[in-house]
Amino acid sequence: MAEPTEHRADPARIQIEDDLYGLDPAFVRAVEDALEAGRGDDANALVEPLHYSDAADLIERLSAESRRRLVEVLRPRFEPEILTELDESVRDEVIAALGFADLATAIGELDSDDAVWLVSQLRGDELIRVLEALPPEIRAIVEQGLSFPEYSAGRMMQRELVAVPAYWTVGEVVDYLRASTSVPEQFYDLYVVDPRHRPVGKIGLAPLVRAKRSTRIKELMSDENMTVPVGADREEVAFLFRQHDLVSAPVVDGAGRLVGVITIDDVVDVIDEEAADDMLRLAGVPDTDLYRAVKDTVRARVPWLLINMCTAVVASSVIGLFEGTLEKIVALAVLMPIVAGLGGNAGTQTLAVAVRSLATKELAFDNAFRVIGKEVLVGAINGMVIASIIGPLAWIWFGAPAIGLIIGCALVFNLLIAGLMGSVIPLTLEKFGVDPAVASSIFLTMCTDSLGFFAFLGLATLFLV
To answer: Does the pLDDT value for residue 17 go beyond 70?
Structure first.
């Protein structure tokens, strides 16, 4: 909660902005000033009340040297969850400052799903040394989690769960929850299992606490048995949660035995990561690189720029075919960017909808022709609307009605092509097992630019030259 305005002048009381959940820049400066002045106790007093996600945001905003100092200040009571919220590049710096011994201690305090995820981010010698430093029981859980595919339910699932037999009474379950030391700190459902430890139902906390102690669990449990295979892709898991409004789901192995649980907080992270990943890939950026070094950012972005350069050469070669036309009618060179720009923007609109619909399974091959037909029709109508504006403007601008007619026809054609390609390209890539978010925009740009220029300059050559 934000501090009252009258206290904001005191750096030690600065918390969160009144109208935002993000950190107040004045608070960040106060922490950095305390660290630079060597006032570790003041910095600790400022940071200690923060939620671990806000503490992670603070660490990311600090300079590299201030990060190191803050880690030293927080070391005695460092919250392990901070590590799960940090950007990859910053997390590497924090891990280096913590050292392997403290890192292993932090991992041992995390929930099993977070521990598996954090260890999976380590590489080579770091991974081996951290595993060796973990307690045997934690190491066994982590190694088992690492044995599953990277983006599978097995990596996401939490091993801490509550499983009870159907013949127990409510009183027995409550007594078990009070006495057990292995019960997770937070959980949403209790899973009812058969003698082979296979889930046969579940019961929420609300009906459990409302029922009499003598009531049998089988009388309260829901027969809904929505299980997740341990090898299921995390996008499939997110789709299941979204479709059925789940807050948790049991994970089963090949024999149908209950081995873990996936909760809604982890699914929210997956949905956020997948959405961000699609957005970045559509822009030709493989990953977020806000905190990366310059050389690493350049290395990540250059390959996509080189690919775009090749597609631009294709579009330029189309223009080269009509060099003579351009020499005779200079007005065409002025109007060409309009054709390419509007075609690219229209295609991007269709592409964004198609990629998102594929991810949410709303677009599939059984309804592909209907969707493609709709997008082509939308493109044609949009083209006519835009052409009715640009055509007369071009006529007035250059005093030639033929030029207005030609650019109008080219725009209708190019926006129609944009609607067609914006839906066909991601469907085709999906068919061949290629992530549509990765390569769609490159092929789309090449098609709208090349075909748009060909239509515009071809019509000009046919009717004006």
So the answer is: no
Give the Cα separation of 459 and 455 in Å (integer).
6
Q: Range with the lowest mean pLDDT among 8-12, 75-79, 175-179? A: 8-12
Residue 423, CB-side half-sphere exposure with 13 Å CA sphere: 25
Alpha-carbon gap, residue 152 to 180, rounded angstroms: 30
Task: Tell the burial category of 73 from Cβ atoms under 10 Å away from its Cβ (0-12, 13-18, 19+).
Answer: buried
301-350 pLDDT per residue, tens: 677 677 778 877 888 888 888 888 887 788 888 899 999 899 988 988 89
> Taking Cα atoms as reference points, which of 421, 429, 338, 340 lies closest to residue 376?
421
pTM, two decimal places: 0.70
CA–CA separation, 296 and 387 (whole Å): 44
| 92-to-52, 86, 324, 453 alpha-carbon distances in Å | 17, 9, 57, 48
The CA–CA distances, whole Å, from 398 to 3, 121, 137, 324 equal 63, 60, 79, 19
Which domains can be identified in the chain, with CATH numbers? 5-151 (1.25.60.10), 163-263 (3.10.580.10), 294-464 (1.10.357.20)
Per-residue pLDDT tens digits for 444-454: 888 999 999 99
